[in-house]
Specification:
With 185 residues, the chain is mainly alpha-helical. It contains six helices and three strands, in the order αβαααββαα. It has two domains: 109 residues, Ribosomal protein L17 (50s Ribosomal Protein L17, Chain: A, Alpha-Beta Complex), CATH 3.90.1030; 56 residues. α1 packs across α2 and α2 runs antiparallel to α3.
Amino acid sequence: MRHGKKVMHLGRKTAHRKSMLSNMSCSLIEHKRINTTLTKAKALKQFVEPIITKAKSDTTHNRRLAFSALRDKNAVSELFRDVAAKVGDRPGGYTRIIKLGNRLGDNANMAMIELVDFNEVYRADEKEKKKTRRRGGKTKAKTEEVTKVVEDVVEVEATDVVTETKTEEASEKETKTEEGTEDAK
């Protein structure tokens, strides 16, 4: 039974556990993704997400709170500079856990934990998603096609007008030269 179990102890004493989670958080912030066991990844997610939430508002108090948890000046500065800028509009869920299978040595469940906004593979898919409407209005693609067709028609008409004026000018020149040759005779 899990009565009153709020902390994943991870088989370590409190000081060792806090130090390990702090080091893993610094590595996650520095490298944007790390491989670890599934249980440690879940514990790390609970540990690092409130810190990232604090980093969204850059105040001295929040920097001190982040430093007391991370204990690494470079990680805190990168967190407030780079990570907070990317997650500024996200309301939560800054990390993603992806299961990798079992480790060969001891058959432990392995997982990769990563910062969501720094994975370019998944972000490219999100940009390509198409918004659909139930009312069946014109889609963006259809309107773009229509504007392209209209622009092409306008270009064709403009070139027709240009060629018509050129042919009119050429015929006028020919008549002038014919009149000039007749006057000379």
